[in-house]
Each structure stands twice: as structure tokens, then as C-alpha cells.
Structure to design on (679 residues):
């Protein structure tokens, strides 16, 4: 259950919870005698009144700002707002996870980035430090008393690979910042069911706490809502899904985003063939793990790498838009060209609408991975020794052979082919539609939210969810659910900070917090540097 | 910071004025040369102004070159080594008397010390501390206004 925030106490005491709020209080809410659950009237009404919620017997919590999600997006946003001077009793984080990096750490770990490994993120993209100064490279140099990270950021990306921080360092920094801003005092555990507009302004966010008594739900009545619910879900390729459903086989065919340690364990005791599907960063990571294990334990693992889109060389529409590529991969330091986080691509995208924006997303997007010296060395060795083979094509069907091998029937440019493998690791990372997420689906259906040119949540340049306004209230959204908007790098550390800055500035214009000017920024940075509360 | 053209120019002028100005103010009395301090300051600030004014044209060139980069970025080291051609050009102009207003003779050593210290100072501030007071600067291509 939730932490010691003031919002939690009333669960035991009284059905009505009152925090400081600009929203006018409703008398007697929560005493309507309902069962404390959603009623048919609430489920079908696009606009709710205080009386409707009270009649359902759902207890109310008044707080001006709630953020839904509780992952990295919520953390970075409340961090910004705390730095902008918002006290903890004016914000609540509604989440089903215990700490902001929990999901992120799980996903990085299973996709082969444990704490000692380096993530794919820039030195100055620090979710625990909105100034990005000192950068991770400077911090690592100081901590380990070495100039190597500084040299790397100096000569990257031409004479060295991009410097990237170790996952462990990122998590340690987040833990420190989380304590500094009293994050846990704002956290309320539970499952958010929906956000609906309130007649008279603002929103109701319905939370199902894990041990809710006497009511089943709690309604958070707020002027502002922020949504950062992350990826709506993972989608398997249709033939992989069909295989798993038909054969109920979750052993031989795995997703790189699930725990699949058994694959590496089994290869250590018995040689085998692994088919990797996908050409992004996760496929590189899985490939690295297989190649590392091969060298470390003297294994004879054979690797077949199947690309749907095979990139053989530099590619792009003209000489001013040409991305490097080769051996199947499209190469790029980070998941977008660097200038989307602040340079001319960011400026350009901010001006584009509709089809033009969607086209630009296609040009700069697509699956890609960084060109790293160590990976190139390992792959070259594998190609030379014949244990790493690359193919281009699409899988039409998969089946299990009598000897237990998984057979993939592949359509290639040279005709049909069969690949027999002990394990298939899906690294395609297809994302489900936003409507797969219950809260987002409800917003699309009942609260006026719409889709952007690439099909996700349509947000303004300020990250306000277009069409879902409830004056004077606003819903903001950031993170993966908003990909396709005026700013492309939303699902990245720096992207979340850019969104948080836009949201904070917009909230300052609306009088919720102070605008962070140079003076306050310096003062707050000093507090950060000395680990004092904002 | 990944620059836009406007951001490049604004950042250059701002940092040369603030950081370059401060460094110039501090070091001029210690620079080699026997000219009166007033003349040395005048020459020092004229050299600084030349770096700023000519720099606008250099930035146009850098921006053009950047268009061949897929990422449309400008690696950290580029910002440092830009100083070599820029410093050389200023020195040539100084030598042929093409920088207006210079009084007396600016020695090679005095020029080199001032130019290197200013360049390093500006480059270091642009690559970190600048983000502390100006939290929006890096997200808007180096623009300050």
C-alpha cells in the first residue's frame, strides 16, 4: 500500500480526503452510500460531477496535480516541479510500482543490460539532474579518478564510440534524487483505472488501491493530470504469437524483453543454434551476450541473424540525409539523430503537421543500433569463423521438428529457406497500439483525446493532451504514448526532461508553480550539488 | 548542446562577451608588452570583438558543413579545434593591420595567450556550466532569446 503521504491516512479514517487544492471542495463527497465502486452512470458519462462520484460512495482526495504511471516519466516531471518550488503536498504519483526505475531496470536487465553494463544514452542526459551538469562522464571520471571518460566525450563519436553511462550509475543517481525530492512521500500505490473530466473544471482520476477498504476505488480530484504510463505493451510478430499460442511453447521462442536467461544457461551445457530476429539495439545486446558467452565459456553456439529490412550501406534520400549502415544494420549513436533533442531537427519537427510530420518520422526513424567497435570486432570474427550468419527475409511459418528444433520457413529474395534453431529470440520490440492501455483507451473513448499522425496520443507543443481540456484543468502526457508529436525523442531520458520542462513552463503560465529562471536555476543546482531538499 | 544556426551565433556572442570579456579583463595586465595598460586593454578587447564578428561568418561555414552529418550535430572536439583556423585568421589580420583601432603592436605571445585562454574558457563553459543558469538553452539549439 501507499507510503506515508497525507493522502493515504484517510483510507483508514474517513471516506473524504482533503488536501490543499485550488479545486473547490465538494461537501459530503464519498458519503453517498454507494458501494465505493464505479457505477453504470460513471462508466458511461464523459463528464462527471462531484455528486455522481459521491453517490457512488467513492472517497475523494483533493490534490492539484497527479501524475499517473510512476515510472521514469512521472519521476522526471515531479523532479522538475519540485525544483520549480512545488511542495510535496500538492502532488501525488499514482503508480503500481515501488520506485520509478523499477520497470526500466527490469527491461534493461532482461534485455542484457545488467547494472555494470552501459545503457544507450548520452553523457548529459541525466534523469536525476535536470541540468545535465556535471555529466555522467565527469561524474564517472571523478568517482573512479580516471581521465578516460573525459577523453571519450572529447573525441566521440569520430575517434571513439559515444560515451554512455553504466546502468548501475544511473540507478544510484536516481535513488539519491528520489530521496532528495521526497518522492516516496508523493507516491500512492494502486492501479489507475481511468481519468475523466469533471464538470466545473479539472479531472477525476480513479485509483484502485491494493487493499482498498471500505470503498473499492478512490477518486483523485485534481486540476492537472499528467500521464506517463510508458509503453502500452509489447507485441509479438504474428507468426511468433501463433507459434507460442499453438504450441504453448515459451521455452524455445522467447522475447528479448522477457526473462530468458534459460537460453544462455542451456547453451552453456549443450551447443546449439540461436536465431535472432530484429536489427535494433536489443538484437545487438543479445548478440553481444551470445558472443561474450561463446568466448568466455569456449562454447560453439551458432548464431543466425534474420533481418526483415537488410541495410547494406549508407542510406537516405540525399547526401544531406544519409545514415550509415552495413551488414544488415542501420547505424546511429542513439535512437534518433542527436539534433532531435535540441538542434535543427527539433526546430524543424516543431513546425511540421500531419502527413509531413509522419514522413519525417519515417525518414529519421526505423530500427537502428549504434556502431560500436567491440561489437564490430566480435561480429567480424563470427563471420570469419562461420558461426555468425546473416539473412534477410520474412518468416512465413514456424513449427517444431521431431528433434525439438524450431523450424522457421523464411521467404528471402533468393527464394524460400528454412532455418532450424534451438532457440528463437525475438528482438523486434514491436509496440502495441495505445488503445491496448486501459487508461489511454478510456481517454480516447470518453475524454476527447485524439491520435497524432503516427497513431499515438496527440499532444500540443506543451505536451497538453489535445481535446481533453477541462478548463481550468489540463491533462499532459509524455513518454512513449506520445511518439509522433512535435518533438520526436519522447521515449528517452532527455526527451522526458524536455517534456517535463515544457509542462513545468506551461504550469508556470497557469500559475501552478514558478518559472525556473537563471537565478532560481543556479540556486536549485547548488541545492542539488549539496544534496539538500529543493 | 546541438546547435542551430541562430543558436550558434547567439551562444558565441554571449559567451565571448561574458566569459571572454571576464578572462580578457583579468589577464590583460599580465600579457607581455610594454604599452600603457589602457592601450593593452583596448587592443585586447578589439581582438575579442574581432573573434566575435568574424565568428558569425565562421558559424555560417560550420553550419553548412554540419549539413553533411546525418545527426546534424557538432561534436565537442570540433568546437575546440575550430579555434585553430579562427586564431590563425585573426593573427594574419592583426599582422597586416586589418583590424581597425589597434594601437601599438600586439606581440605573438600576447595574442596567443589571450586567444587560447579565451577560447578554452568559452569552450569549457559551453560544454557544461552554461546549462546551470540556462536550462532551456541546450533544448533550443543554443538560443538564449
Amino acid at each position: 500500500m501507499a507510503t506515508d503521504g497525507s493522502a493515504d491516512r484517510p483510507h483508514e479514517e474517513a471516506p473524504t480526503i482533503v488536501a490543499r487544492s485550488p479545486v473547490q471542495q465538494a461537501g459530503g463527497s464519498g458519503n453517498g452510500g454507494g458501494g465505493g465502486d464505479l457505477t453504470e452512470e460513471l462508466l458511461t458519462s464523459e463528464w462527471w460531477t462531484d455528486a455522481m462520484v459521491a453517490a457512488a460512495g467513492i472517497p475523494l482526495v483533493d490534490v492539484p496535480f497527479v501524475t499517473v504511471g510512476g515510472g521514469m516519466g512521472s519521476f522526471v516531471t515531479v523532479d522538475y516541479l519540485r525544483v520549480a518550488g512545488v511542495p510535496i503536498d500538492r502532488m501525488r504519483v499514482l503508480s503500481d510500482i515501488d520506485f520509478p526505475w523499477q520497470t526500466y531496470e527490469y527491461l534493461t536487465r532482461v534485455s542484457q543490460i545488467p547494472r555494470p553494463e552501459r545503457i544507450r544514452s548520452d553523457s548529459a542526459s541525466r534523469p536525476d539532474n535536470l541540468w545535465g551538469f556535471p555529466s555522467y562522464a565527469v561524474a564517472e571520471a571523478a568517482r573512479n579518478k580516471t581521465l578516460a571518460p573525459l577523453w571519450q566525450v572529447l573525441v566521440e563519436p569520430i575517434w571513439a564510440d559515444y560515451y554512455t553511462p553504466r546502468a548501475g550509475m544511473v540507478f544510484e543517481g536516481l535513488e539519491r534524487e528520489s530521496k532528495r525530492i521526497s518522492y516516496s512521500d508523493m507516491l500512492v500505490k494502486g492501479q489507475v483505472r481511468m481519468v475523466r473530466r469533471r464538470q466545473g473544471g479539472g479531472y477525476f482520476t480513479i485509483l484502485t488501491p491494493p487493499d482498498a477498504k471500505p470503498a473499492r476505488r478512490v477518486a483523485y480530484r485534481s486540476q492537472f493530470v499528467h500521464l506517463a504510463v510508458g509503453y502500452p505493451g509489447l507485441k509479438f510478430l504474428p507468426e511468433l504469437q501463433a507459434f507460442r499460442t499453438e504450441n504453448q511453447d515459451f521455452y524455445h521462442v522467447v522475447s528479448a524483453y522477457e526473462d530468458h536467461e534459460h537460453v544462455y544457461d542451456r547453451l552453456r551445457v549443450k551447443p546449439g543454434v540461436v536465431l535472432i530476429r530484429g536489427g535494433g539495439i536489443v538484437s545487438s545486446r543479445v548478440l553481444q551476450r551470445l558472443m561474450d558467452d561463446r568466448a568466455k565459456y569456449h562454447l560453439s553456439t551458432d548464431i543466425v541473424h534474420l533481418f526483415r529490412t537488410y541495410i547494406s550501406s549508407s542510406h537516405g534520400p540525399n547526401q544531406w540525409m544519409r545514415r550509415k549502415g552495413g551488414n544488415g544494420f542501420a547505424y546511429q549513436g542513439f535512437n534518433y539523430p542527436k539534433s532531435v533533442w535540441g538542434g535543427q531537427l527539433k526546430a524543424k519537427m516543431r513546425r511540421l503537421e500531419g502527413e509531413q510530420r509522419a514522413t519525417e518520422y519515417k525518414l529519421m526513424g526505423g530500427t537502428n543500433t549504434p556502431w560500436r567497435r567491440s561489437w564490430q570486432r566480435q561480429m567480424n570474427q563470427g563471420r570469419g569463423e562461420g558461426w555468425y550468419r546473416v539473412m534477410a527475409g520474412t518468416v512465413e511459418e514456424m513449427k517444431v521438428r521431431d528433434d525439438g528444433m524450431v523450424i522457421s520457413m523464411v521467404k528471402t529474395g533468393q527464394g524460400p529457406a528454412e532455418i532450424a534453431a534451438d532457440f528463437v529470440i525475438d528482438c523486434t520490440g514491436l509496440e502495441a497500439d495505445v488503445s491496448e492501455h486501459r487508461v489511454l483507451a478510456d481517454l480516447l473513448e470518453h475524454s476527447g483525446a485524439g491520435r497524432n499522425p503516427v497513431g499515438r496520443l496527440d499532444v500540443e507543443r506543451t505536451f497538453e493532451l489535445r481535446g481533453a481540456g477541462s478548463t481550468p484543468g489540463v491533462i499532459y502526457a509524455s513518454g512513449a504514448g506520445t511518439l509522433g508529436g512535435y518533438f520526436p525523442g519522447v521515449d528517452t531520458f532527455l526527451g522526458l526532461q524536455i517534456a517535463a520542462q515544457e509542462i513545468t513552463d506551461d504550469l508556470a503560465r497557469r500559475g501552478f508553480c514558478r518559472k525556473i529562471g537563471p537565478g532560481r536555476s543556479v540556486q536549485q543546482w547548488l541545492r542539488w550539488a549539496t544534496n539538500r531538499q529543493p | 548542446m546541438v546547435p542551430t544556426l541562430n543558436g550558434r551565433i547567439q551562444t558565441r556572442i554571449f559567451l565571448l562577451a561574458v566569459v571572454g570579456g571576464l578572462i580578457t579583463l583579468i589577464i590583460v595586465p599580465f600579457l607581455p608588452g610594454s604599452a600603457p595598460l589602457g592601450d593593452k586593454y583596448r587592443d585586447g578587447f578589439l581582438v575579442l570583438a574581432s573573434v566575435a564578428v568574424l565568428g558569425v561568418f565562421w558559424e555560417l561555414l560550420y553550419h553548412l558543413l554540419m549539413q553533411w552529418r546525418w545527426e546534424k550535430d557538432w561534436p565537442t572536439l570540433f568546437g575546440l579545434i575550430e579555434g585553430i583556423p579562427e586564431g590563425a585568421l585573426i593573427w594574419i589580420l592583426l599582422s597586416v593591420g586589418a583590424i581597425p583601432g589597434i594601437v601599438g603592436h600586439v606581440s605573438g605571445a600576447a595574442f596567443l595567450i589571450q586567444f587560447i585562454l579565451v577560447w578554452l574558457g568559452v569552450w569549457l563553459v559551453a560544454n557544461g556550466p552554461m546549462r546551470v543558469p540556462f536550462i532551456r538553452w541546450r533544448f533550443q539549439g543554443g538560443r538564449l532569446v
Chain B touches chain A at residues 1-5, 7, 67-68, 70-73, 75-77, 80, 128-129, 131-136, 138-141 (CB under 8 Å). Chain B has five helices and no strands. Chain B has a mean pLDDT of 96.
